[in-house]
Recover the amino acids of this structure.
């Protein structure tokens, strides 16, 4: 995968104001002037990425860092992280950033607390400043387990409503998972760098989904007469809420954290036929 | 192609009497798993076992030939086998896994590989053995066949269950009793009615009885991995083969049934679409 990513960016040129060492690193990889075809268009400048951490457990960021093998390449050679409290110590409410920079893509982890003015402001601002907004992880996409928050706790007793970010802003793509699986992040990064919109299409179509729950399997699959009892949803469930009774998934709602992974992985919800054929050669 | 992409179609059976004693047909699934386990190609596999011997399939993790053989034989009800991948990767900590999967399960597996939303599972799947599948029955349907239609006191009295030669067969006290397949229509699970895949088109290697003589199986090798394992098992003497064009009833029957499923369920899909009911979104 690393080679693949390098290849994609090997021929690219930084149009903006590149950092010198990066340019040097990229240079040896530059083959004979790659034809400036459509493929290279997406890679012609390093995408400017922001990472906003709203209300979540940082699990998605940790999942991102689990891609040890490609992470340093991604961070140093392929993208510019231009905004983010954790990754580049920039936060519009803090000391070092008066203003949020322009971004091509902003990953948002965590749900938005409607009573937290900073979160709401940061999210709305991100929508203005970023070309694309990605709900990164189930908290941002569906609210996930923050859905169960009820407030009444220190240090902010009033903080009780933790909503999917799509309830406040238009979301362009969504990656569910509690946390998002590291491999899924890697594959998405590769697709993004490739401008492989086909691969991203399911995530784009899921952008506005904020209803992730074991119930989706019930209403969207079983009740529609689509379930084959294959077991993928139980495999998907990170909390083992999904059991099986008489060949059908049965969601233990006390365990379900509303991450939506079960429905996302169900082959009867959507099936990437073209991709599977390409991957397997079948 | 009505049988999907495949490299070779071949009639085959296990050479191991321990496998043939318990296998549904040619014992190909068991032979492949045993070989792959012994050779370290996989460290374990998830299969549909029926530990209580009551025909109720239970997803089972197997890590030895004995366990493979204990789980051998077709179960005609739903097994959420893929759920056991979780156990295999998390509790057992297995890094290289085989899966015995129906066509719908192969779809789930391939989707999980293409879109690995479940962390560190899909990358551990090394061998997918697909089994031919026309449809699957709820346990209550199997009970109905046994008790109401064939006069058994209980489904558990049956020592063998099979579908072939146009009939659904139950064996009791060494005697086979058959129920015409059309008597089973309407008892299959609804989800099977929209499935277009009879021969597990995305498996590494697919197998089932149709097309080969009694006691033999028809094998379709599909991916490089599937072909390699199958050929190696043949070379190791664990599987004997016959050219497909030398056996009766031959590949034509398999093609006919595969096409029949696509035609029939294609109509069901059209009907659903007309009624405004959803189908899986295809990308």
């Amino acid at each position: 995968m690393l080679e693949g990513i390098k290849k994609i960016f090997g021929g690219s040129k930084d149009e903006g104001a590149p950092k010198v060492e990066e340019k040097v690193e990229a240079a040896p990889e530059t083959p004979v002037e790659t034809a400036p075809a459509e493929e290279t268009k997406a890679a012609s400048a390093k995408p400017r990425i922001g990472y906003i951490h709203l209300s979540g457990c940082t699990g998605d960021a940790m999942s991102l860092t689990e891609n040890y093998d490609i992470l340093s390449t991604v961070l140093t050679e392929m993208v510019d992280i231009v905004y983010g409290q954790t990754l580049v110590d920039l936060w519009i409410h803090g000391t070092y950033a008066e203003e949020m920079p322009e971004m091509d893509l902003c990953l948002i982890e965590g749900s938005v607390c409607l009573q937290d003015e900073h979160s709401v402001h940061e999210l709305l601002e991100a929508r203005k400043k970023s070309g694309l907004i990605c709900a990164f992880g189930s908290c941002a996409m569906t609210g996930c387990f923050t859905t169960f928050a009820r407030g009444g706790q220190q240090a902010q007793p009033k903080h009780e409503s933790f909503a999917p970010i799509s309830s406040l802003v238009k979301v362009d793509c969504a990656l569910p998972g509690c946390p998002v699986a590291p491999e899924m992040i890697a594959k998405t990064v590769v697709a993004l760098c490739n401008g492989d919109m086909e691969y991203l299409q399911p995530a784009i179509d899921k952008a506005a989904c904020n209803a992730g729950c074991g119930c989706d399997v019930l209403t969207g699959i079983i009740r529609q007469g689509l379930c084959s009892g294959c077991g993928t949803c139980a495999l998907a469930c990170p909390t083992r809420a999904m059991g099986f009774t008489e060949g059908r998934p049965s969601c233990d709602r006390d365990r379900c954290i509303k991450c939506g992974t079960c429905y996302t992985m169900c082959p009867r919800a959507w099936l990437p036929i073209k991709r599977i054929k390409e991957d397997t050669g079948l | 192609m009505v049988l999907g992409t495949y490299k070779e179609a071949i009639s085959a059976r296990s050479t191991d009497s321990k496998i043939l004693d318990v296998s549904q047909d040619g014992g190909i699934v068991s032979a492949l798993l045993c070989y792959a386990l012994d050779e370290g190609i996989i460290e374990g596999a998830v299969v549909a076992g029926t530990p209580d011997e009551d025909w109720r399939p239970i997803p089972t993790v197997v890590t030895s030939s004995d366990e493979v053989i204990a789980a051998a034989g077709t179960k005609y009800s739903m097994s959420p086998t893929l759920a056991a991948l979780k156990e295999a990767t998390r509790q057992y900590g297995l890094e290289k896994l085989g899966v015995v999967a129906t066509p719908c399960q192969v779809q789930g597996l391939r989707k999980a590989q293409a879109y690995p939303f479940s962390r560190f599972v899909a990358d551990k799947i090394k061998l997918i053995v697909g089994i031919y599948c026309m449809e699957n029955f709820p346990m209550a349907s199997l009970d109905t066949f046994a008790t109401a239609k064939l006069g058994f006191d209980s489904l558990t009295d049956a020592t063998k269950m099979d579908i072939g030669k146009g009939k659904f067969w139950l064996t009791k006290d060494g005697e086979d009793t058959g129920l015409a397949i059309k008597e089973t229509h309407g008892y299959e699970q609804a989800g099977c009615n929209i499935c277009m895949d009879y021969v597990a088109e995305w498996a590494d290697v697919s197998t089932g009885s149709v097309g080969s003589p009694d006691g033999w199986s028809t094998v379709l090798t599909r991916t490089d991995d599937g072909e390699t394992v199958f050929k190696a098992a043949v070379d190791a003497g664990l599987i004997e083969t016959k050219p497909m064009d030398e056996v009766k009833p031959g590949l034509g029957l398999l093609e006919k049934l595969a096409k029949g499923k696509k035609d029939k369920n294609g109509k069901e899909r059209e009907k659903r679409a007309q009624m405004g009911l959803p189908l899986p979104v295809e990308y």
